[in-house]
Amino acid sequence: MVKDVIKVTLDVDEVPRKWYNILPDLPEKLPPALHPATREPVTPADWEPLFPKGLIRQEYSEERYIDIPEEVREALIAIGRPTPLHRARRLEKHLGTPARIYFKREDMSPAGSHKPNTAIAQAYFNYKEGVEHLTTETGAGQWGSALSAACALFGLKCTVFMVRSSYDSKPYRKYVMKMYGADVSASPSIKTKFGQQTLATDPTCGGSLGIAISEAIETAVSNKNAKYSLGSVLNHVMLHQTVIGEEVMAQMKKIDEKPDVMIGCVGGGSNFAGFTFPAIYEKKKGNLDTRFIAVEPESVPSMTGVACGKARYEYDFGDTAGMTPLLKMCTLGHDFMPQAIHAGGLRYHAMAPTVSLLHQAGSIECEAVGQDATFKAGQMFARTEGIIPAPESSHAICSAINHALAAKKTGEKKVIVFNLSGHGLLDLQNYADMFGF
Fold this sequence. Notes:
The chain has 15 helices and 15 strands. The chain has a domain at 7-15 and 71-112 and 235-435: Rossmann fold, CATH 3.40.50.1100. It has helices at residues 53-60, 70-78, 89-95, 116-128, 142-154, 164-169, 171-179, 193-201, 209-221, 235-254, 270-284, 353-360, 371-385, 391-410, 428-435; strands spanning 7-8, 18-20, 65-67, 85-87, 100-105, 133-138, 157-163, 183-187, 226-228, 261-265, 291-297, 312-317, 326-331, 365-369, 415-420. By secondary structure, the protein is of the alpha/beta class.
């Protein structure tokens, strides 16, 4: 048993060749998406104005494992897969905990986050079907950066609507996107009818992911040979991210460890899903006895808010304008206007339907943490492990620290694993604002 390991690596030939699809293994059948006009279940054909057929097939597939195209797998390897699993020994020592803390390094991609795992796949399937232009939204900019890079890889035009509060506070993210050739606009913008309407009502609107989604969809459907791409929420996005969790399972097996707790931050749910879904399947088979904890901001409590009435588990639009199909999910309401929190990637009003269902069924837990505690946890992690985390990832770190301190009180040698979903090197202004640097 290799308990003193510092880093667990995999060989290139161990990069997953299949994505894990959780749909056949959910506690109950996922409620169908509903057409915004008829309220009838959406058919695959209804999605075609937005997505290529290859992604639509994945959205509906009941196959447990879906082959990863070799061209996609090679691109994932080129940008750094497989990623290492690290033991946070210095953090453990600082906390004085008997717990063993591990973290998955999804911060090491060129975009600085887990987002390329699906951006590359989405760009590929669009490219294969002759699409020339992709539109999208982005919060903190990690998704916009990833899709911009993926579009450059496959020769596609990319248009990004970035939530205005992040556009103003994270200028280097828009520079990254523009370096990859993307057209980037602060949302709400004057480039769409919905953006113009929003600004007419509130000229100082800081924006939201819901508004940016509406603008991206409007742009996609009004341009020839264009499709919409998104970085979270829908099933095919969750699917692509499971390369993370499949690698984690292989890495834990290499050192003969089993996670007692797995933790990921949640905004729309993609990094948490990719990190935990393969392990949730292992638990269903009886191979694990793990707690799965999703961590969201106190100011955007889409799941934790259900218990106190701030949020609901019901059908809602994925965007502010009401252009998307209705999805059954934990939601604060599609017109929810979040605070301009520093973790811009976690400001979405709702949670992915699959993650929402798992939470409602009791298969996963959810915690909410405040911004002050989150940033302090990120600073502690930087000073012990030498990595500056994204503010989003610091939510998971904050929870991991809390569980490690709980283990200290009980003396339990728990194995805590969290997903370091992104680095914070382009979020330093937020840290500076928080700590008064």
